[in-house]
């Protein structure tokens, strides 16, 4: 079967465990994130051009790609740092509008978070990756009414966003 | 087996009331980053009562969440589960004892 004819059946591939690390620059106040596969996440501050990046926090997380079990097509998700559930905190936010566009049914919107948290560079998770994530999480029914994944460039503000990031925070509260 | 039948057979606590669902499998994990890769319809057994777990459980459309070892979810977690129509259940004994009971009931 050719890749263009395939009705892809996505599955996770290249699953890596590590840490989602967030840093902030004291000068421009932008924030960035990256995935670290180190046993302990790096916390050192460092200069990068005009930026002075400082560690803000980290949480255990997984990175993965998606691969079609039928034709073998692989979608690398190297820009994806984590997924986040929109809790509908801001009606002026682009993510909120996606979730509330259908008044009859409430769609759960998950935001694909990229490394450029403040979007200073304008880069985000590519459309191909967002399409594959939607196909994967909407399952066999392909029902966009229940789950929709959108890129984080739709988010109005990283500072006021109250979304729930799907990373392992609070594990130390287990016992 | 359905979630209602399981509640009855194992005497599980219920932290909220939601519709009945068919259980297609069982997954045991306390890590959100692990749960986001499971198939829909699983009974999720965990110790983790953090809100993040409900956000992940909703993404993968679990049949229900069972908190083992007497763990009790906070009110805001129950509220989010209600919005997501996820049934939250409780089991007083440890995860291994629950796993054995599920296996003996044919929930695999």
Can you offer a commentary on this structure?
Chain A starts with 9 loop residues before the first strand and ends in a 10-residue tail after the last strand. In chain A, strand 3 and strand 4 form a beta hairpin. Chain A is globular and about 50 Å long. By secondary structure, chain A is mainly beta. In chain A, the strands form two sheets. In chain A, strands 1, 2, 3, 4 and 5 form a five-stranded antiparallel beta sheet that branches. Chain A has two helices and nine strands. With 108 residues, chain B is α/β, with parallel strands linked by helices. Chain B has a single domain, classed as Udp-n-acetylmuramoylalanyl-d-glutamate--2,6- Diaminopimelate Ligase, Chain: A, domain 1. Helices cover 37% and strands 17% of the residues of chain B. Chain B has helices at 3-10, 32-35, 51-59, 75-83, 95-104, and strands at 13-14, 25-28, 42-46, 64-67, 88-90. In chain B, strands 1-5-4-3-2 form a five-stranded mixed beta sheet, with no helix packed on it. In chain B, helix 3 (51-59) runs parallel beside helix 4 (75-83). The radius of gyration of chain B is 12 Å and the shape is globular. Chain B starts with a helix and ends with a helix. The mean pLDDT of chain B is 95. The chains are: A mainly beta (175), B alpha/beta (108). At the A-B interface, strand 1, strand 4 and strand 9 of A face helix 2 and helix 3 of B.
Sum this structure up briefly.
The complex is a heterodimer of chains A (175) and B (108). Chain A has helices at residues 94-99, 127-138; strands at 10-25, 31-36, 46-48, 51-68, 74-75, 82-85, 108-113, 147-151, 164-165. Chain A has 175 residues and is mainly beta.
